[in-house]
Amino acid sequence: MLNMNFSERIVIDTQQQAWQPSPAQGVWRKPLEREAKESGHTSSIVKYDANSQFATHQHPFGEEIFVLEGVFSDENGDYPAGSYLRNPPGSQHAPFSKEGCIIFVKLNQFDPRDTDVVKLNTLHTPWLTGMGGLQVMPLHEFEHEHTALVKWPKDEVFQPHRHYGGEEILVLTGKFQDEQGEYPRHTWIRSPHMSGHFPFVKEETIILVKTGHLPVSLSK
């Protein structure tokens, strides 16, 4: 297991991690949390070299992807940087990349009833007005779980708050900050149920945020 104690706060600057080989030639990964070596609850940054592919595989409890760089593809289409994808429980595909890509992937973390298929290009999706100077782009929600992009303007300061069901952040651009530290591009932060912080930025910053999805009691 790796980082599977959901009562702990985890911060990983993924740009400082070394790429590790996957079972597929030309596909590399940086593990963030992992229940088992090649199965179960997993979150990773994954890199496809140009003209690399992964074997057809199933998603017993779903797959969630955000394309960070390049173009990710499967038999259903091509997904450029900025694409947000959800493949529901029981789905399968054979992914590849012609030009190469880097993606953020979360496997086997869906409620079995969460069966929506989502294919969204966030570069062509409008922002909505959020609290203060924030802009928000909702990506998906299911009961207590919410996923969105949040754009922070330069020098924005948010109110102190807590996270019922936890919070998970991947910094996409800029530098996110709170009273506990600074988090540059591609830093991954997982904060447990009822954790709190006082976030702010000094430069325009975009983050991918998921809330309400972590256990509300101590877990493994």
From TrEMBL:
Protein name according to UniProt: Cupin
Species annotation: Shewanella glacialipiscicola
Domain ChrR-like cupin: 8-110, 121-214
Coiled-coil boundaries: none
